[in-house]
Amino acid sequence: MSGQDLDTGDIAAVPQPGAAAPSRWTAFRDSDLLASFLRSKLAVGALIATAVMVALALAAPLISPQNPYDPAQLDLINSNLPPIWQAEGQAPFYLGTDDQGRDVLSAVLYGLRLSLIVGVLGVLTSGILGIALGLVAGYAGGALDTLIMRIADVQLTFPAILIALVVDGVAKAAFGGALDVGPLIGLIVVSIGLSFWVQYARTVRSSVMVEKGKDYVQAARLIGLSAPVIMVRHVLPNVTGPVFVIATINLALAIITEATLSFLGTGLPETMPSLGTLIRTGNRFLFSGEWWIVAFPGLALAGLVIAINLLGDWLRDALNPKLQ
Amino acid sequence: MSRTLLKSLVRGVAAGAALALVAMPAQAENVFRFAFQGDIKSLDPYSLKETFTIGMHAAVYEALVTRDKDMKIVPQLAESWETPEPTRWRFHLRKGVKFHDGSPFTADDVIFSAQRVRAPGSNFQTNVPADAEFVKVDDYTVDMVLKRPNPIAIAQFPTWYIMSKTWAEKNGAVQPTAPTAGNPGYATLHENGTGPFVITEQQPGVKTIFKKFPGYWGKVESNLDQAVFTTISNDATRVAALLSGEVDWMDPVPLQDQQRVNASGTATVMTGPELRTIFLGMDQWRDELKDSSVKGKNPFKDPKVREAFYLAIDEDTIAKRVMRGQATPSALLIAPALYDRAGEFKRPATDLKKAKELMAEAGYPDGFSLTMDCPNDRYVNDEAICQAVVSMLARIGVKVNLNAQPKAKYFAKVLAPGYDTSFYLVGWTPSSQDSHNILFEIAGCRKAGDKSGRGGWNLGGYCNPKIDEIADKVEGETDKTKRDALIKEGFDLIQADWGYIPLHQQALAWGVSKKVHLVQRPDNMLLLYWVSKDKTPS
Amino acid sequence: MLAFLLRRVIQAAAVLAVVGLIAFSMFRFAGDPVNQIVGPDTPVSERAEIRKSLGLDDPVIVQFGRYAGDVLRGEFGISYQFRQPVSRLLADRMPATLELAFCATVFALVVGVLMGVYCALRRDSWLAGLFQAVSLVGISLPTFLTGILLIFLFSVTLGWLPSYGRGDTVRLGWWTTGFLTASGLKALILPSITLGMFQMTLIMRLVRAEMLEVLRTDYIRFARARGLTTRAVHLRHALKNTLVPVITIAGLQLGSVIAFSIITETVFQWPGMGLLFVQAVQNVDIPIMSAYLLLVALIFVTINLVVDILYTVVDPRLRLPAGKAA
């Protein structure tokens, strides 16, 4: 679930009381060689898997037998067909169809696309917001810093999914419910953005605090560079590593959040299904033996998230061997 | 899991079971557990006209007359009645009937209930004729005086439940609680009827407990001591609950799960035709549709567009695929069981080519876009039907933006002042079990300031003044043949105008444990007083 | 120490005040309260009258004050869907959620610590590898998928465990418990695992990492050198030292567990506050949404406070100048 506030890249937030940092050498010696090899192998596998899924998602309109969002292409005659290897299966519905005659394979491909789009946009939104606030808080210090970090505290009080649900619910109350898909995706992206910015802000802020005192920044300041320039040109490059780790893991979280919102029925509609919506629909048919409607979207979602998480794990370990 | 943990868990379970035995000594009680996808909205019997809720009220409240297993009107709180003159109905009330609070039932309660049911906020105003005047003759005789003869004046009495005057006055429940009321009245949470069951616990949205009323005046067919109702909105969990024996009855059984239930050996699906008709309505009222690509005019005002929609929607496939055969396509807005001449109506066949031509003739060769409102938790596969309609209309170029919502939000929207919808799906059962209700409430013209309820559920504002004339004639006509002919005239007009797009009557599908014996009427009400359960020897 | 605690309490109060403000804004501005009260055909004049009687024409500050007063008295308004006081609805469903959260936490703690210790001590065994894999899946799989998977396995295919609801409950005063009946206990198993899965993974990873860390320290080496048995070293010394962060995480996560029960409760139709909240979001039932938000904030803040206090008690090094202890 997305309560991972503590475990993700927010390295500084995990309490490490009294843990004397061992030297790199001891860490290396004690780390499990086999496991780390396996892990890197896993990471390579994860990278390939992610790349394949991204490619499939990007190519969805080209390779899908059907456009699952175009109602004119759905025919009830083809509804509830099983996958091709079962007796009643029919080409071109290789993974079967749902109750509207929607091709499950096409729906999964398009769903992957939607998940990735929402995930990436959500990560970008939260990243930009969080980095900007973190830079400002760290560099400016004082009252502004306190204000931003207190807001972050309040925000951390709530899990992302709760914030996303509330933002979603309030927006629907305000707009009257009948949202088009475009604005709906925007709304979900904003919900995700507002839920995930804190980690970036905290990480960036603490890095900035460290960098701020260093000579090169002082020097830059002395030669008259303005604060924004110093921050963007000199401080930002130093935090890209951790930010990248957070972004990777948050991508998985954002995808899960969108899927969860859709599963709970407050995300994307059944006429434009994301993986979460497909799973919600398919869940209805779980008991009746029409397992393919929920199984393939579920596999796709789990595969995508696990692959991205593995990548993120590997990235984090590469950057911080102590946690191994 | 470690062995010790497992052990302690087992021990915990055992201890819990032992405690449970101590906590519930009366195992001999015959308890019927049942689940529905929605909840009992309100205990106030005038709050909300919703089939399941009304059926639950019938366990605790009673009416002057009721319907038997074959839907015939039979005496209940009125032992008998007669019409000494066409405009006067005399009811002889049953003596020795007690409300659950112990107070006796008398003519005053009937007169009070007749006022309350027609008061503002009541959802049952049309159940009792607006012009009827109730007069107390003596404590156990009441007259209903009408302005003009009405052969079906008591057709809706079976769901007009009698409340206690003294109880309502004592608890500040003299006014009915409107379905939209923010403040729950006392009567929303408490009941005081004369029925065979009392409600001992009401947790809205979670559970309701019914217990046998020891002071009931009559003999009850049911052998239940207790009935426990739970809301299970999720289809799959509702099925699982039935199959595992956690509930003895549930409604509805999702179409896709019916085979499995029947194969289970522990429960069966009881199906039957339902009286409710599912249909589509179109906004013919506004000068410009809301959220449509057509500006400055309303395409639905052109009968050709309505006809094109009708012809583009392939109801046979919907019935076969979406409804998995558990629906009867309908040409009328009323179920065949309720109108003897229904067989004379045929649904025009689906004709895409003609539909496209009609759209072109109407000036929309490339179609247009509009928003459709649809509930997603009200009728069998409601959202799936709407999605199918969206696909079918896409073939004649109409781009439908589907707005499927939970029923609470859906009804709040479509029933908002001015009826906020362009194109919608609803299901309707005439509460009078009579065609007049269709001609009056569904097809009657909406008029500003009209308090009679005419066109009250005509959400699209379809209007043909001739139908209003016919409806008025039907109301006063006592000769059945003439009446049926008049009705046919009305229904013909609706069809000729393409005023509505009737879809089908869905089939009832109750999941019933083999231990349970009950009665299923086509009005889809679960009536606890006919429910019996085999006692398990224990 | 006292100053530190005081500071914490003030911070907690501030957080609650901010959340209160958000809840109030939702309550007041998202959706016109009047529309929710009157019927569709209520005339405008009557609406204005109701507006006035509800005090919606007063300055916003006054309204917030009134709202805060109501909330402090436990009045959160009337649910639009159920037409019942929200406080009563929440109170009815709180036991279900708390019992589920409790079981999930116990499951996560017990299984998580055991698996973590095992993985740290027998790093190379295949079982440790399996545990690692499980933890990866546990952290990646969305809760609702885990739930559906468990239902499919244990309810649909095997038919062992119920897939929905709480089973039979026993009423003890205002509290209803599922602990006292066999069906109630059975009903708890799948939802608890589903809900606790993520926390279990977290705890397992943490325990493993901490154990490895501690085992490397001089302290343990000394213990070994003193001739203590391996078991004693592992359990008495190493494990004990990892418990501080575990307590922290478990404590902090208890709040998350309650909030995350939203999803588990939806999958299993568990009649708790989370299900109520999801239905409220679907039906835009603002009073329930804002009340739930406040309640969760209160639980979170309280737990954070308690954990902080425990922390200072367990680990004296943290009794530092307040600003640094985070």
Distance between the termini of chain C: 14 Å
Q: Biggest interface, and residues per chain? A: A-C, 60 and 67 residues
Rounded mean pLDDT score of chain C: 78
Task: State Rg of chain C.
Answer: 24 Å
What percentage of amino acids of chain C are in beta strands?
under 5%
Structure, explained:
- The complex is a heterotrimer of chains A (324), B (538) and C (326).
- Chain A has helices at residues 24-30, 33-58, 60-63, 104-140, 142-157, 160-175, 181-212, 215-222, 227-263, 275-283, 292-319.
- In chain A, 68% of the residues lie in helices and 0% in strands.
- The two termini of chain A are 22 Å apart.
- Chain B is built from 15 helices and 19 strands.
- Chain B has two domains: 31-248 and 515-533, 3-Layer(aba) Sandwich (D-Maltodextrin-Binding Protein, domain 2); 273-507, Roll (Dipeptide-binding Protein, domain 3).
- In chain B, 53% of the residues are buried.
- Chain B is globular.
- In chain B, strands 1, 8, 9, 10, 11, 12, 13, 16 and 17 form a nine-stranded mixed sheet that branches. In chain B, strands 4-5-7-6 form a four-stranded antiparallel sheet, covered by helices on one side. A two-stranded antiparallel sheet of chain B has the order 2-3.
- Chain B is an alpha+beta fold.
- Residues 320-326 of chain C have low confidence and may be disordered.
- Chain C is an all-alpha fold and 326 residues long.
- In chain C, helix 5 (86-121) crosses helix 8.
- Chain C is 75% helix and 2% strand.
- Chain C contains twelve helices and two strands.
- Chains in contact: A-B, A-C, B-C.
- Chains B and C meet through helix 1 and helix 6 of B and helix 2, helix 5, helix 7, helix 8 and helix 11 of C.
Keywords:
heterotrimer; A: 324 residues; mainly alpha; disordered N terminus; C: 326 residues; two-stranded antiparallel ribbon; 2 strands; globular
Please summarize what this structure is.
The complex is a heterotrimer of chains A (324), B (538) and C (326). Chain A is an all-alpha fold.
SSE inventory with pairings:
The complex is a heterotrimer of chains A (324), B (538) and C (326).
Chain A: H1 24-30, H2 33-58, H3 60-63, H4 104-140, H5 142-157, H6 160-175, H7 181-212, H8 215-222, H9 227-263, H10 275-283, H11 292-319
Chain B: H1 3-23, E1 31-36, H2 51-60, E2 65-67, E3 73-75, E4 78-85, E5 88-93, H3 107-117, E6 133-138, E7 141-145, H4 165-170, H5 186-189, E8 197-203, E9 207-212, E10 226-231, H6 235-243, E11 249-251, H7 258-263, E12 267-282, H8 303-312, H9 315-322, E13 327-329, H10 352-361, E14 369-375, H11 382-394, E15 399-405, H12 407-414, E16 423-428, H13 435-442, H14 465-476, H15 480-497, E17 500-513, E18 516-517, E19 532-533
Parallel strand pairs in B: 1-10, 1-11, 14-15
Antiparallel strand pairs in B: 2-3, 4-5, 5-7, 6-7, 8-9, 9-10, 11-17, 12-16, 12-17, 13-17, 18-19
Helix pairs in contact in B: 8-10, 14-15
Chain C: H1 2-29, H2 33-37, H3 44-54, H4 60-72, H5 86-121, H6 126-140, H7 143-157, E1 170-172, E2 175-177, H8 182-216, H9 218-225, H10 230-268, H11 273-282, H12 286-314
Antiparallel strand pairs in C: 1-2
Helix pairs in contact in C: 1-12, 5-6, 5-8, 5-10, 6-8, 7-8, 7-10, 8-10, 10-11, 10-12, 11-12
